Amino acid sequence: MQHLANLDPAVNAILGDYPGHDGHDELLSDNQQPRAHWQGVLDDIVQLGPDVLAARSEEAQNLLHENGVTFNPYEDDPGQLRSWQLDCVPWVIPTQEWDVLEAGLKQRSRLLEHILDDLYGARRIISEGLLPPELIYTHPGFLFSAADDPPQVERPLLIFHGTDIIRDSLGQWQVLADWTQSPGGAGYALENRITLARALPSLYRDAPIKRLAGFLQAQHRCLASLASTHREQPNIVLLSPGPGSPGYFEHAWLANYMNFSLVEGDDLVVRDGQVSMRTLGGLKQVDVILRQINDPWCDPLELRPDSLLGVPGLLQAARCGNVHIANALGAGILEHPGLLAFLPSLCRELLGEELLLPCRETLWCGDPAALAQVRAELDGWVLRDISKPGRLYRADQMGLEALRDLRISMERHPYLFTAQRHIAPAVAPGFNPQTKTFERQSATLRFFSLVEPDDLTKPVNERNYRVMPGGLAWVGEPGAPLMKSRLVKDVWVTAPVPQPHISLLRQALGPIVVTRDGKDLPCRVAESLFWMGRYGERLDIRGRLLREALARLLQDDRQESGSQLMPDLLRALDIAVDPEAFADESLPANSRFPREYIVTRDRLLQLFADDLPDGLPAIFAHFVRNSRAVRDHLGDDTWRAINSLRQHFNSMSRTRGVVVGQRHLEAMVLDLAAFFGLCNETMPHHYGWRFLDIGRFIERTLGSLELLKLALLDADEPGIPLWEVVLATTDNLTVYRRRYRSQLHPLAILDLLLFDETNPRSVGYMLKRLGRQIAKLPSPGSSPYRNLEQRLIIQATSCLHLVDIETLTDLEGSPAAREALSNLLDQLIEPMSELSNALSHSHFSHVEAPRQLVSMHYTGQP
Amino acid sequence: MRYLLRHTTHYQYSGAVTLSHNEARILPRVLPWQDCSNTQLVITPIPDRMRERIDFFGNRVVYFSIESLHESLDVTVTSEIVTHPRASADIFSSISWEQAAEELRHDPRQTNRDALDARLYVLDSPFIFQSPGLADYARSSFTPGRNLVDAVLELNQRIFSEFTYDPEFTTLATPLQDVLASKRGVCQDFAHLGIGCLRSLGLAARYVSGYMETLPPPGQQKLLGADATHAWLAVFVPGWGWLELDPTNGCVPDERYIILGWGRDFADVTPLKGVMTGGGDHSLSVAVDVLPQEEGAQGQVRDLV
Fold this sequence. Notes:
The structure holds 2 protein chains of 2 kinds.
Chain A lengths: L8 H7 L23 H28 L18 E2 L4 E3 L1 H25 L4 H4 L5 H5 L22 E8 L5 E7 L6 H14 L1 H4 L8 H14 L9 E4 L8 H11 L2 E3 L4 E4 L2 E6 L2 E4 L2 E4 L22 H6 L4 E3 L16 H9 L10 E3 L3 H9 L4 E5 L6 E3 L5 H13 L4 E5 L6 E5 L4 E5 L1 E9 L13 E3 L3 E5 L11 E7 L29 H37 L6 H7 L22 H11 L10 H14 L6 H17 L5 H25 L4 H28 L5 H10 L3 H8 L5 H10 L7 H13 L12 H15 L12 H29 L7 E2 L10
Parallel strand pairs in A: 1-21, 2-21, 5-6, 5-10, 10-11
Antiparallel strand pairs in A: 3-4, 3-18, 7-8, 8-9, 12-15, 13-14, 13-15, 16-17, 18-19, 18-20, 20-21
Chain B lengths: L1 E26 L6 E11 L4 E6 L5 E7 L3 E14 L13 H7 L9 H6 L13 H8 L8 H15 L1 E2 L10 H7 L1 E2 L1 H14 L4 E8 L16 E9 L3 E5 L11 E7 L8 E7 L3 E11 L5 H7 L1
Parallel strand pairs in B: 6-7
Antiparallel strand pairs in B: 1-4, 1-5, 1-12, 1-13, 2-5, 3-4, 8-9, 8-11, 9-10
Helix pairs in contact in B: 3-6
């Protein structure tokens, strides 16, 4: 450990091996003293001490995890779950330095907007030879369809702009890349700030740092004033590729924070030149789209015909000014890495200014001189091929054959290649909770700018931008993508004086119109809520049954009383057991574990396996998929319950023992109860909640009916042990005992589980509840008659009410009684099965995938 | 020449279409050598929305949507067209094909607007990719130092004589390599092939879509609806302009050719494309008439309009 003179020993202790780096150091000056703007942070950290800091760091981690903050595209797959680590030490930028950076970022956004305006307008920069046509026209982000002549509506194209910047070892800022379609990360930046402020209040609350919330407020104002109709409540939607996309967490987060509807392509339709959202109450006009889908995929009519994410006719609606899209379609051309090489000259030409923020040294290989230079020193460059986005070529790390192919490709299509110089990054401190000391890191920073909301209607050369005073940093090699990073940091911009704490809840922007969720709920959301309810309940029913089965298995084992009950329980769980398996001599058997026990146990535990179609993890995957699709309708605590479930499921597939299995199921049943309880407590009891509730109770009704049928009619070994299981599964054993204090009797069970409308586990109660919920759903027409859903409920309820209970008294003795019960159960099951389809038909959107009139299969590069 | 043009596209769906968004590029361009008058576009059912605009390439595009249930779509354009001799008749250019390719190469000092504009047409496009195979095929006409126009005309002739017109062989998706290997295709394939050859040598070539007057067999009356849409190409001759070539017929287009529009390849000038919801299977029929407006044809013309 290298101790530094003149430093507090406590500081030295926490610095650990950090000091001693040659290049630019964010924390320490050349004479190895902490820089002035770090002093306050260091003091606070030393005061907390390494142990507390490590503990708080872990707490921040848990908060992030519970909130489901993740970039991970494979979140549905419990095995792949991974969220990032959040460093509790921020990247700190002092005021004076920020002023320079901010000016550079603002200029950059203005410059890019000018370029965009020209490329989709007069294209002067191409016709005057400032930008080579090969640079622009080969990039998939240049949309020929958006380059109409002349453009019909004057409007800003680049609303948001994200810039990736790195500090090099000389202390110079260098721009690495621009994000101009739907720059991601602003939501994460805010979430990181919130999380760290909760975990480290002493460090954050009074620190003189610039706050972020104001920027998102401005973003909201900007989007709202883009609406051409200038309605009081413009309808702004966030168009996401869906839960499968890597940035979905942020899409849901932003939609929630900004109070936008989170929609997917299927939710939108272009009719009468307007973009509308399909909702329970019909079509609702959309004014502004905050899109998170990349350019070529937005409209299968004019852009990529094979896109299933987009909205047919969207480009035409935007062209006519009937909807505003942020950022404008076609803005992706600015993400061309080769553009960096031309920015200094374009800046002089378009703005009459020198470019303030230098770019990473970049050569565009379409220029013969540049190509010659790159070829001569191939090892010194990182190469990108714009036809293969996201891929980096480093000659020094490539095999001979790959290198030869690369050289051939560069020879044939030099204009597709951009070469960027390696960068030696500066170091910054990070806290390692394991060693409890600082470690050296290099990080890429992303900053966000936004067109000034007041400048929207001004001509392009009068439009200005504002920059979020903070950002997102991630640790890794310069230029490593954010998505692949494991460690992220908050970015602080210090202010001269402590800043007032602004509530992150948005303040009313102008006069607020009180709204309530209602008929404008997208049909897809209603459908997902319905299925979330059904799968959640199915998980609960099967989990409880399995729990009982495992309990009986243990009892049987202990009492050696045989397992007469098991075949019926296995049947209830849809598990087929081949009787011959019991005779399989190859299985190890001993006095403690009879062969039958082992076979049965293994079959039961198989329900925990990931690959079984009706196993618990599979049902859970359906449940999570639907929950994620309605992420913006679930409260934070509700989401925490889902994450807790997910953690159980992460280890569930490895379950080998009965007791461990029971423990998983106990936890699952409780978490599910917490989840549904929170839904009931926090979701407004409006249409969305009703669909969830209906889904749950249809599933529960069917589950109970099947269970009764099995226990009272179809069982091999009917009788008290099985009835007990039924009562335990429905969590009614206690109620029964209190009520009857006697032997179990089938008629009493029937009363409790079928007829007693005060018992929430009885079919009678469930039907009543379903009837009430369905009556309150929006009905599309104004027909005076009952719709099919209502009729089905009435049909089931009548059967139940009209049954002559006398005919059922002697279930054990009389075949007639058994037949009467069998008829009754069937008469209940049938309409309830049909109800699900009827609801789906009336309320959920059945969007057929749009098809091409002429199928244009591009041959693709041979 | 004076023509009456009529082009009908008819789609019949097996099921009802609830919503369709479409783009038609079937209105002829007005050009120095081509006047269009009385152009009418009739769409059945009547579109709920219809908008015309000029696209990136200068072509006329009509967007239309049909938003109520329909089981067929009928798009008919009629236009009176007068064509004049093209400038190509008196073309004289002494430039060699290598010089032409050199003019089209990236050079920061290049400021000639026509050459800059033409460079778009050297690049790969959705249906056409440069390849060594295409360059090899072209090279026997493009001998070192040869005059560009001579070489281009010879290539045009070679495709005409070495390839067989075979509507059964190709689909929209037939890759150029297959066309080159089998030496079969239709006008669109031959145009794509010619473009691919020229681009593989570093020259600029674009796809032209339109019509051509066909003559009935001697002694017979011309049948209505017997004409077809046609496709050919144009090559950029630096300092002069775009020279059209029709490899399907081995000739240089003249007054008998009517131009709809041009682009990098077929994808940019698809006459009618659309995205629809519903509809099931569909069948397509196209009828084109390019009727010379001569005294004898007047009766027919009146019937048509």
